[in-house]
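Record now logged underneath.
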Amino acid sequence: MPRGAYRSRSLRRIVVKTPGNRIVIHYEKRRPKPARCAICHRELHGVPRVRSMELKKIPKSSKRPNRPYGGYICPKCLEKLIKIKAREA
């Protein structure tokens, strides 16, 4: 029986066959939910679904789209925001 910390269903179970031909269970945290737009809450594309520890290892150019508010709001909301700002100016 696994120890108490591993009995939680918040951990994902992966069945692994070792080189010694044993089948063991590895436990890892589940994938996080996709990043969402701060305005319309639509799923953001170009933002990887990885945990923060893995995000540290990814180069900055791969973490988010390279545009204003990239990785924070979606392109449609950005377009609306730019149009509003242009009307105000």
Strands lie at 11-17, 23-29. Residues 75-88 form the longest helix (14 residues). Helices lie at 52-57, 60-63, 75-88. The mean pLDDT is 93.
